[in-house]
Amino acid sequence: PLLPWFFLTGGGAVAASIVIGAVAALGLGAAIGASSGRGKMRTALRQVAAAAIAASVTFGIGSLLGVHTT
User: Fold this and answer.
1) Torsion of CA 43, 49, 54, 56, to 10 degrees
2) What is the pTM assigned to this prediction?
3) What's the average model confidence in pLDDT over 28-45?
4) How far apart are CA 49 and CA 26, in angstroms?
5) What is the DSSP string of 30-64?
6) Residue 7 pLDDT > 70
7) Which terminus of the chain has fewer Cβ atoms in its 10 Å neighbourhood, N or C?
8) Cβ–Cβ under 8 Å, residues 25 and 48
9) In angstroms, rounded to a whole number, what is the distance separating the alpha carbons of residues 55 and 24?
10) Mean of pLDDT values over 25-33
11) Would you state the pLDDT for residue 68?
12) Per-residue exposure over 57-68, b if at least 16 CB sit within 10 Å of its own CB, e if not
C-alpha cells in the first residue's frame, strides 16, 4: 500500500505498509473463504502467505537493482 508513504518516511512507512497489506490480505482471504464455503481462517492465512511471498520477491528484485526505501 502506498498510502503510508504520503505521510511517513523510512521504517515507519514500511511498517505501516506491511500492517495495512496484511490486514487487507486477511480480510480478502476471509471473504473468499466465506463465499466459497471453505474455512475462513485457512483461506485468510493462505492469502497472507501469498501476499508475503509476492512482497518478498518484489523486495528482493528491488534490492538487486539497488532500490532503497529510505
Assistant:
1) 170
2) 0.81
3) 93
4) 10
5) HHHHHHHTS-HHHHHHHHHHHHHHHHHHHHHHHHH
6) yes
7) C
8) yes
9) 14
10) 95
11) 80
12) eeeeeeeeeeee
Distance, CA of 19 to CA of 25 (rounded, Å): 10
CA separation for the pair 51, 9 (Å, rounded):
22
Q: Report yes or no: 40 and 30 within 8 Å, Cβ to Cβ.
A: yes
Rounded to an integer, what distance in angstroms lies between the CA atom of residue 32 and that of residue 20? Answer: 18
Q: CB of 2 within 8 A of CB of 20? A: no
With bands split at pLDDT 50, 70 and 90, how would you rate the model's confidence at 22? very high
- The alpha carbon dihedral of 2, 47, 27, 11 has a sign of negative
What single letter denotes the amino acid at residue 39? G
